[in-house]
Amino acid sequence: MLKRIAVSALIALCASPAYAAAERFTLDSAHTTVAFLIDHVGFAKTLGTFNDVSGSFNYDTDTKQVSDINIVVKTASVDSANKARDKHVRNKDFLNVKKHPEMTFTASSATVDANGSATIDGNLQLLGQSQPLQLTVTLNKAEKYPFGHKSFTLGVSARGTVQRSAYGMNYGVANGLVGDTVDLIIEAEANQAK
Known about the structure:
The protein contains 2 helices and 11 strands, in the order αββββββαβββββ. By secondary structure, it is mainly beta. The protein has a single domain, classed as Lipocalin.
């Protein structure tokens, strides 16, 4: 009888591989950049950033699965190195920051492959509308930080594109003054929550 119980326990153990639980990671605001490039009258692209970004996600180092992704950008923090332009971008023609102070990216899950790459399909909430957004992500590094906080840290690069007209942001699209396609550039460090 005891032998039968031991064998059953061993089979159950082998059938259920033990994985480390996913850990929560929080964006390091001092080492996270959310930037964008957008065409200006066909002459050149304007580069801008959002300076107030927060967020977190789960990451399982064994399964390489990313889950429960939630990134929040304060729209009024837009900065294109030109005060007059930034004032215009904050108004109703573009981000309408008084009515919509945040844009949010959420995604359920994705798996990082052996090359450190992943495609994350989620939704971007902007101007009161939610549209699909796909990010191509590269996990640059995953290890203990060498100084300072010394937390386990993930270094991530991500790229994506947004069609602003899909959110009703149509200013300058029809006459070609401002591009419709916005290229997203994200460089981030995220620290394991303590």
